[in-house]
Amino acid sequence: MKDYDMTSGSLMKKILLFSLPLMMSQVLQVFFNMADVAVVGKFASANALGSVGSTTILVTLFTGFLIGLGSGVNVVVAKHLGAKDHKAATQVIHTAFLICLAAGIIITVICLLLATPLLTLIKTKDNLIDGAVMYFRVYALGMPALGIFNFGNAVLSANGDTKRPLTYLTIAGVLNIVLNLFFVIVCNMAATGVALASIISQYVSAVLIMWHMIRDEGICNFNFKNVRIYSGRSRAILILGLSAGMQNAIFAIANLFIQVGINSFDSTIVAGNSAATNADTLIYNLMAAFYTACSTFMGQNLGAGNKKRVLKSYLISLFYSFATGALLGGLLFIFGREFLSFFTNSSEVIDAGMEKIKIMGLSYCVSAFMDCTIAASRGIGKSLVPTVIVIIGSCVFRVVWVYTIFAYFKTIPSLYLLYVFSWAITGFFEIIYFIKSYRLLQKM
Fold this sequence. Notes:
By secondary structure, the protein is an all-alpha fold.
């Protein structure tokens, strides 16, 4: 804890050191689905690639909710740790376990029952839907494990430990690749095989992080005998966690309408978008490490009463996330074809994927103003208004764009440009709200 004392010392250095392992953890967590796309694209068929890629939006919808729920747990635990209230932190931890596990189980049931209607709703191609339904249903069986891992990751990172979650995800990630290759090449299971590999890996990561928490003798100790809903603890978790989860889910819901637009083109465009979307997932999650750092550092310093460090934590995290988006987006713009070649052997699919990368590569950095400010509002306990702003600025705006601008031009660039415009508009209003909330906090 001395190296990660968030309430004193250089914020520039500590936020960076805190975020680097977290960046790798975030990447490895989404690497499960990315590896699935890569393996089926290289060793199966274009149809298998399209089937897995067609589920990406739905997978992001539900995994994003669980990741957001974990973010809420992180803020609540960090605040109690900053205030040195270890009893409250312990009660929050054991309450949060039940909430995150229940959320994972509920999502699994929803996915199993509604796989076909959901994939039909986004107009998945007839030649892809059977494989997509099978992949999505098998992948959904890993949601409880994902909920548990995000719970453990949230608790450990709130206490400054971002290295252990990275270690556990590295083990699971290597296992995922090995199993992917085995199920696809040896067993010829294609989409079903890579989904099976993913859920096995997810359960391994969940078991590892829980095993550590059970053996931990510090504040992050977990004991099944203490698992219950403690009075007054679930409310804070649900307010921040569900809001954060809904914010993540809202983006995915809005993207469902974008997927409908993409599915209106031929299978090559769909496959190209599936390959290019891996860049979105990769860069978003690298940037997201700084959003977690932002809310965690703000939560601890708010609990400790260090209001000046609360604002500095936001500004430094915003700088890091913007720089990360600009750097990685620029590299992607230059080396996009090489990146896409990891996921497909088809030059036509690569050409289609470059249509997205040329626009998105220069746009990622803009999203930092929106997402980091949302994390900052969450760090000072504000979640409802930022969620409403996201619904209007990202969900409603994107739907309107699809049925107006895209409906008029009917081109791929006219579809992808909606991202940067929605990020800019939403970020502008999120910043205004945060400024007002922070000023009120200073007065209090």
